[in-house]
Write a structure and sequence with these properties.
With about 220 residues, this protein is mainly alpha-helical. It is about 70% helix and about 0% strand. It is built from eight helices and no strands. It is globular and about 55 Å long. The N terminus is likely disordered.
């Protein structure tokens, strides 16, 4: 008599790293939950920290001030970003023949950002050890060699984790929309371009009104 096999349980936060398609299938009928929002908050905080580094915020602000701004603005930007991108992708995917609901797209965008949890941990560890140098666009010449290496390693890890997150996003998007990977990538890329243009337009309007996106103290 053949032994009965029990289906392997899925842990979305763990399995999405290597099996995003299976995670998407597991979450297909699940409504948006607190985990989705927490993942969006994490993405927003990491994006704010990355923006702070790109603008060398460490030259004019303390680490505590930079982290405080990220903790205040990052969650709002992250959650709003998920809503905006899920709305854009839902509309684009339907025109391309996809059938996923907005909640399913929200899951895709949220859970594909799981690598940002690791990135946030590395950001915080580096900030605790290297201080303001973490948020400079390149380590200063007088920084200790170990800390300079740490800052460079942190930047490289961030780039790799963001790249992995984007790869997961495309694969999960393809599964959710029942689209071939090539077509899903095209829809994903178009959505990224539209969102970036919208952000650029908003940025220009903000600058035009004389408001700094990263307020100095």
């Amino acid at each position: 008599m053949a032994e009965e096999t029990t289906p392997e349980s899925i842990h979305p936060l763990r399995d999405v790293w290597l099996r995003p398609r299976r995670v998407v299938r597991e979450l297909a009928d699940t409504p948006i939950t607190r985990i989705d929002y927490l993942l969006g908050i994490t993405q927003g905080i990491v994006s704010w920290l990355s923006l702070s580094r790109a603008q060398s915020a460490g030259t004019s602000s303390t680490v505590a001030q930079i982290l405080a701004r990220a903790a205040l603005a990052g969650p709002i930007a992250g959650v709003l970003g998920l809503y905006l991108m899920s709305a854009v992708y839902t509309r684009l995917a339907r025109r391309a023949g996809g059938s996923a609901t907005r909640a399913q797209i929200f899951h895709v965008l949220a859970y594909s950002g799981v690598p940002m949890i690791a990135s946030l941990g590395i950001w915080l560890l580096t900030a605790a050890l290297a201080g303001r140098a973490t948020f400079l666009n390149g380590p200063p010449a007088d920084l200790q060699p170990f800390l300079a290496l740490l800052v460079r390693a942190q930047f490289l890890s961030h780039v790799l984790l963001v790249g992995w997150s984007l790869l997961l996003q495309v694969m999960a998007f393809s599964e959710a929309e029942r689209l071939p990977t090539s077509r899903a990538f095209g829809v994903w890329l178009l959505g990224q371009v539209l969102v970036m243009l919208a952000i650029l337009l908003l940025w220009i309007l903000v600058i035009g009104f004389g408001v700094s996106p990263l307020p100095s103290t």
